[in-house]
């Protein structure tokens, strides 16, 4: 009660408003070369006009800090492994793993690899952030979060921003968007108790009926694109990561069939469990799980009303408040080789430039390519300070880290690294201590196996160069040069320009390695680290990666599905999204003869469940004539259009029942044979597995291991799911099926990362959180408001923003953010885009100076101090 009263006093109206930005008038700012104008519209979205590139990024740093500095500071603590300094002991496990991985060190080593121009832009951005901090004078004047935390963090001082603080954010992005690390560990763990044929059901090949991003006619291995001149602004000083060797030919993209049974090395199961627990402790920034992906597609002028291309993008990431993205425009008053930017779109707080958007000539969008960029290695340790490699004993690289904990004692951590990377199984000691020191070759091993992690995110790169190169690109050639620099996280890049061209490029560092287990592709399960033949042999050359320009059908859809099925293509991964969203988008585009901005937006909001036709057919075949109560619910599925809307309607009631049945069906079919920490999430991979099992009435997966005296069949499990789902919705909503709706189950609460949890007084949570918000759609649906079957119906990932770019009239483009421009609770722009985002509406996106001026609500002029 006393704490609540203190918090009430701290978060009074004057304190809440103290950190709000000045958005009008004139402010003096140190370091500027000349005056800078910041124009904001009614949603507080800034458009910045400057005469030099340095001033443009100084102003971006200043303005972003005005709106989002606490978010920036939180991210910098996470990426440096210093979260516990801000939030106390709750951050220690995250800090342990990030210190073990060494994110900050990688960012420090990446800085000198950047082009000199990029380093200048980073420095200018930091100058702008620090000018803002100097103006505010202290934490309490910067953000209300510091005032609340100040009750238990009275001595906290904000550190100056530097270039590495920005670069470290790239490591966090790469971590959340990496490839198959969780499935690699899961397969290895399950193989200890599950035969290969049974395991293969859980990891089916990519569906033949779902088209890849590029057909065989759109890209073939070995196809080259003529080298292009780099943009003038970077021609003299851009640097690239050296190209790796050519990819291994002929590696299959899907598992050809069950191999011989895997034999885990003694002690490996404990080490794998420890590694998995450690990595799951990392605080997510973009989110994790099967749904962390995106939709993007681009159509040529032959398919549009205007005769020029349209490009759509909506990345699916973890929801939060404030939202992940920060909308901004960056405009050189005179575009030249020294100031080449006239660009608008979505950036991240703390990172200079525009990450996704368009300039005056080209537009681009991202979806996660998801290549397998992580591999785990079993390591034979020789005591605490060495490991075995090719029969020799090699010293481990040791480092001591001190983690400072707010309100607690410092924690000392010793990190260990092999030549593959950090030993991640060290980090959760409670699991590692459970190892049984197994016998090896008839003798007692000195300790259990350890597990190390090889990951491209631990390789210093010049990835930030790609952001500035994209922002200044003028055609497909310069766009590809930007993609060449984009080394991690690897993304699908879609492209369109005002001249009518559309294109695609797959970039990134993709490791080359051999498969250590016969019958499996590379990286499918962990490899023996003591044998160097399984080590990485370099990276796929950029010129070997898939791309296309102006495909004949005038459409490119990139929604995390398989990139290409072409024989001889470089091995990228086996962990594609299974293509449900991508195929649905392609079908909708094909069914729309002439597309415009509004039609693209309607496709983004499509809430059709494309698994439902097959599953509903099976559910309606179940005879419930002796159970009128369940039969009443089953009848909702007859005539259902397979959409999942919110609000009262027959479709919404049917969607609620269908998804309740899906929960029970997944749990009864899969979870009885899976460990508690790796339950089925019910996403696209499980859709494919269920599609296969529906054709097998007596598969061992139908048998419920929790009823040892009974061997269940498919129809028994389907019947049980129908009955249990009826009871579940009766308890959760009503016994009247007419009262059911998907929106009563499927909701999102936007939660503040630090102040939104249950440990915080409710008065503070009500100030910073928003929701619950009913949302349509679901997992593997185009409107991808995804949820995890093992955790309930609550939305776990969602479109973090939506944009549609019209290359015929850039001012006719639309955009919407998940929350708003401001990170200050109660500010008018804190959540002012939520309603539009949730209902599928979009905002006008002014780009030309006339359009920006017409939409102007506030104007701030920054002038040089003195």
Walk me through the structure.
Strands 1-30-2-3-6-7-8-9-18-19-21 form an eleven-stranded mixed β-sheet, with helices on one face. Strands 4, 5, 22, 25, 26, 27, 28 and 29 form an eight-stranded antiparallel β-sheet that branches. The model is unreliable at 1-6, 227-261 and 430-446 (pLDDT under 50). The protein is globular. The chain has 866 residues and is an alpha+beta fold. The chain has 25 helices and 30 strands. Helix 19 crosses helix 22 (714-732).
Overall number of strands: 30
Q: Mean of the pLDDT scores?
A: 88
Shape: globular
Uncertain parts: 1-6, 227-261, 430-446
Q: Terminal Cα separation, in Å?
A: 50 Å
Number of helices: 25
- Largest sheet: spatial strand order: 1-30-2-3-6-7-8-9-18-19-21
Helix content: 25-40%
Radius of gyration: 27 Å
Largest sheet: 11 strands, mixed
Q: What is the structural class?
A: alpha+beta
Question: What percent of residues are in strands?
Answer: 15-25%
Summarize this, please?
The protein is α+β, with helices and mostly antiparallel strands and 866 residues long. A hairpin with a 7-residue loop joins β13 and β14 (411-417).
């Amino acid at each position: 009660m006393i704490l609540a009263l203190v918090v009430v006093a701290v978060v009074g109206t004057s304190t809440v408003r103290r950190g709000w930005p000045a958005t009008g008038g004139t402010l003096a700012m140190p370091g500027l070369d000349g005056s800078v104008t910041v124009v904001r519209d009614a949603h507080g979205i800034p458009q910045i006009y400057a005469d030099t590139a340095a001033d443009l990024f100084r102003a971006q740093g200043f303005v972003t800090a005005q709106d989002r500095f606490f978010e920036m500071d939180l991210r910098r603590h996470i990426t440096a492994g210093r979260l516990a300094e801000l939030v106390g002991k709750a951050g220690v496990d995250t800090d342990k793993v990030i210190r073990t991985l060494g994110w900050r060190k990688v960012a420090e080593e990446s800085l000198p690899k950047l082009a000199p121009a990029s380093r200048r832009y980073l420095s200018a951005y930091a100058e702008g952030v620090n000018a803002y901090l100097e103006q505010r004078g202290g934490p309490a004047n910067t953000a209300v979060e510091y005032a609340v935390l100040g009750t238990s963090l009275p001595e906290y001082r904000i550190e100056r921003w530097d270039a590495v603080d920005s670069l470290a954010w790239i490591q966090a992005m790469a971590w959340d968007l990496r490839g198959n690390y969780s499935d690699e560990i899961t397969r290895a763990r399950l193989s200890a108790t599950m035969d290969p044929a049974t395991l293969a059901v859980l990891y089916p090949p990519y569906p033949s009926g779902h088209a890849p991003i590029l057909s065989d006619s759109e890209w073939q291995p070995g196809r080259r694109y003529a080298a292009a001149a780099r943009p003038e602004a970077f021609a003299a000083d851009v640097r690239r990561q050296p190209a790796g060797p050519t990819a291994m030919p002929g590696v299959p993209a899907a598992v050809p069939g069950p191999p011989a049974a895997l034999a885990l090395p003694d002690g490996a199961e404990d080490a794998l469990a420890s590694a998995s627990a450690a990595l799951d402790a990392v605080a997510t920034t973009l989110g994790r799980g099967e749904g962390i992906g995106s939709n993007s597609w681009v159509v040529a002028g032959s398919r549009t009303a205007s005769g020029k291309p349209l490009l759509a993008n909506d990345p699916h990431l973890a929801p939060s408040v404030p939202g992940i993205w920060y909308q901004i425009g960056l405009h050189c008053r005179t575009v030249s080789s020294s100031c080449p930017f006239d660009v608008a779109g979505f950036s991240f707080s703390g990172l200079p430039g525009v990450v996704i958007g368009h300039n005056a000539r080209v537009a681009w969008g991202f979806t996660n390519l998801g290549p397998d960029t992580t591999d785990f290695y079993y390591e034979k340790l020789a005591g605490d300070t060495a490991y075995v490699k090719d029969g020799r004993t090699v010293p481990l690289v040791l480092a001591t880290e001190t983690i400072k904990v707010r309100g607690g004692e410092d924690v000392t951590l010793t990190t260990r690294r092999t030549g593959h990377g950090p030993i991640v199984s060290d980090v959760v000691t409670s699991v590692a201590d459970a190892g049984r020191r197994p016998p090896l070759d008839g003798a007692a091993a000195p300790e259990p196996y350890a597990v190390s992690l090889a990951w491209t995110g631990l390789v210093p790169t010049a990835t930030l160069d790609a952001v500035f190169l994209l922002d200044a690109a003028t055609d497909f050639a310069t766009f590809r040069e930007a993609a060449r620099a984009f080394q991690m996280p690897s993304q699908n890049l879609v492209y369109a320009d005002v001249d009518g061209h559309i294109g695609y490029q797959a970039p990134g560092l993709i490791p080359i390695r051999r498969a250590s287990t016969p019958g499996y592709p590379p990286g499918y399960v962990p490899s023996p680290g003591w044998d160097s033949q399984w080590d990485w042999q370099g990276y796929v050359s950029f010129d070997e990666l898939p791309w296309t320009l102006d495909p004949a059908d005038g459409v490119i859809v990139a929604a995390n599905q398989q990139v290409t099925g072409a024989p001889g293509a470089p091995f990228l991964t086996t962990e594609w999204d299974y293509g449900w969203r991508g195929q649905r988008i392609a079908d909708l585009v094909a069914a729309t003869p002439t597309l415009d901005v509004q039609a693209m937006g309607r496709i983004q909001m499509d809430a059709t469940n494309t698994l439902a036709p097959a599953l509903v057919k099976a559910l309606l075949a179940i005879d419930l004539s002796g159970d009128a109560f369940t039969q009443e619910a089953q009848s909702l599925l007859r005539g259902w259009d397979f959409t999942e809307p919110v609000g009262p309607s027959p479709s919404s009631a049917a969607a609620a029942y269908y998804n309740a049945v899906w929960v029970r069906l997944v749990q009864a079919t899969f979870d009885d044979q899976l460990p508690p920490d790796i339950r089925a999430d019910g996403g696209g991979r499980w859709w494919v597995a269920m599609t296969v099992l529906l054709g097998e009435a007596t598969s061992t997966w139908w048998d419920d291991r929790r009823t040892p005296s009974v061997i269940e069949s498919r129809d028994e499990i389907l019947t049980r799911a129908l009955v249990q789902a009826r009871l579940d919705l009766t308890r959760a909503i009503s016994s009247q099926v007419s009262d059911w709706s998907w929106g009563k189950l499927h909701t999102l609460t936007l939660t503040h990362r630090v102040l939104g949890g249950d440990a915080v007084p409710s008065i503070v949570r009500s100030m910073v959180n928003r929701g619950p918000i009913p949302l349509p759609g679901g997992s593997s649906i185009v409107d991808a408001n995804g949820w995890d079957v093992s955790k309930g119906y609550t939305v776990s990932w969602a479109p973090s923003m939506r944009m549609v770019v019209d290359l015929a009239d850039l001012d006719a483009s639309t955009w919407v953010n998940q929350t708003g421009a401001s990170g200050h609770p109660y500010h008018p722009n804190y959540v002012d885009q939520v309603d539009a985002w949730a209902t599928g509406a979009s905002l006008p996106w002014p780009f030309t100076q006339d359009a920006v001026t017409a939409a102007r609500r506030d104007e701030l002029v920054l002038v040089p101090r003195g």
